[in-house]
Amino acid sequence: MDRLELVTRNVEEVVTMDELKKLLEEKAHPSVYVGYEPSGNVHLGHMITVNKLIDCQNAGFKVTVLLADLHAYLNRKGTMAEIEKIAEYNKRCFIALGLSEENTRFVLGSSYQLSPEYEMNVLRMACDTTLNRAKRSMDEVSRDAEDPHVSQMIYPLMQSMDIATLDVDVAAGGIDQRKIHMIAREQLPTMGFKSPVCLHTPILLGLDGTKMSSSKGNNISVDEPAESVTKKIDKAFCPIGVVENNPVLDLFKYHIFMRYPAITIERPEKHGGNMDFSSFEALKSAFAEKKVHPMDLKKAAAKYMNMILEPVRKKV
């Protein structure tokens, strides 16, 4: 797999592909960042972007993780003291998931976001951004989308300035970050900063086939006990032969095959014996053709996910 394939695998959108190709041609070690609100348990939703950062790291990128404590505060995720503790927990989880501690720059947002220069740049951007544009950009990520607070209108402007201040070439995040990233791409060049390339990962369904939510219990925390992971996957939505919007297949696509080049579906000899797969597409086809039963798929998913998450349970 070449650098471009590694950086773009499992990505829903690249803005723009031509810019990314040019960046990879011109720089041996471009830079990429993801910002995370320290606001609770690290779960599979976070893990998708961590996986993408690992891909980028393996492709020679310099990686920055922004622990966005002030963003979390503006989005009403707790007191600064509470958020600071969660930020340190997040960092330990990300390292345990496979980010190189030596080659990853972890930055706390409040370490620079209260500087006069940063605040002046945010105010400059505020002068050129309409309230409607700021609100629309927050619709997917705001806790109070129906009745937003003024603090949440500052959020996308700060996120744009983070990209400039951290001096990164690529901004990565879930597709829900797209509108914020588009503000950055349009506004930063007018202020003398470079426009970032953007990598957007998909937003996956929860294990029950509905919108992912910790309150529904349809998600998995990366430090969750193995028994709980197995139980949740065993109950997951996984209709026989259905490959679209299948959360168990998503575990293989976005997490398991990212770390294991080949996997084994274990089955009793009376049911045909074990089946080996060296690609997600091969597994997906076999499941669509009903050659793999949902229970066997779930059993394998639980086995591999627990192998992936075991270092997190040990370290955090």
Question: Which features characterize this protein?
Answer:
Tyrosyl-Transfer RNA Synthetase, 6-stranded mixed beta sheet, 13 helices, 8 strands, Rossmann fold, 48% helix, two-stranded antiparallel ribbon, 316 residues, alpha/beta, single chain, 2 domains
Would you mind describing this structure in some detail?
There is one protein chain. By secondary structure, the protein is an alpha/beta fold. Helix content is 48%, strand content 11%. It has 13 helices and eight strands. The chain has helices at residues 3-8, 17-26, 44-58, 69-74, 80-96, 116-127, 131-138, 150-165, 178-187, 226-234, 247-259, 280-288, 294-315, and strands spanning 13-15, 31-36, 62-67, 104-108, 170-174, 197-201, 263-265, 275-277. The strands form two sheets. The chain has a six-stranded mixed sheet, with helices on both faces. It has a two-stranded antiparallel ribbon with strand order 7-8. Strand 5, helix 9 (178-187) and strand 6 form a beta-alpha-beta unit. The longest helix is centred in the last third of the chain and has 22 residues, at 294-315. The two termini are 32 Å apart. Homodimer. GO terms for molecular function: ATP binding; tyrosine-tRNA ligase activity. Keywords: Aminoacyl-tRNA synthetase, ATP-binding, Cytoplasm, Ligase, Nucleotide-binding, Protein biosynthesis. A motif ('KMSKS' region) lies at residues 211-215.
